[in-house]
Design brief:
two-stranded antiparallel sheet; about 30% helix
Amino acid sequence: MHPLVRLGQLLRESGYEFTTITPESHARVNARRGNERARTLRDVFGWSRPFDRSLLASEMLSLLEKANAIDEDRSKVRYSTDGDFLFVHSAFPTTDSNSVFFGPDTYRYLKLLRRLKPSAKHAVDVGCGSGAGGIVIAGRCERVILADINPLALEYAQVNVELNGIRNAEVIQSDVLQGVEGPIDLVISNPPYLMDTKARLYRDGGGRFGEGLSIEIVRQAVGRAERLILYTASAIVDGVDTFRAAIDTVLRPRSSVIGYEELDPDVFGEELSRDVYSSVDRLAVIALDVSLQSERLL
């Protein structure tokens, strides 16, 4: 058993719960007087605060050390809860290039999947990160592949599969769908959608405004899958939805948009002060649901 699986089990047995918020909000809470050091398990594994080793039970401390998940007086991992699910991911702040992100976007993504209730024989979670999306839909699928290009994401996704008792999931390294073999009924994805000067895998989407990876996922899904559910963002420029305009040229004539919904009209507003977004009105989170076998034209 991976030590982070056992650590998660101990946290669950303790009644641990934590909802991960945005990095900016997280920083503000941690900056409050009295929050300099950890006093509880939530402080250690949620708020990522420095802690005295005497605060943790010896087994927890040993598990962190075995997983190489402790850096002097801070845990390198966080655990977040979503209902009965528990997910391990990178500690705050997520500054490393291979950080595995979990936050409000993840919660919105999982809420979308629960609302749409997709089912499939063979599903793939592209850019799975922590694996949360594939894990949440696993109960409605015969087989789920959690695919990512980031080795640390694959390690944490495998931990989360075991921690949440998922028996029909496989974790593989893949650049979008290139490493996935066999038939695919369903592709789901919550890819990075911003431009990041540090090129961090969880954040940098490439392209002009961060839409590059999302468009590539649509492009590859068209040739492989029957349905695609994509949670991403679009740069709205002079009132024009640039992502929608781009995918209109990618989707083949027999593809049918089941749903295209703006879930949040304004996210990451601080990004608009950067030169790369100087022409952008706003960044909007959108949900794209596409049938790739429909007779109806887009």
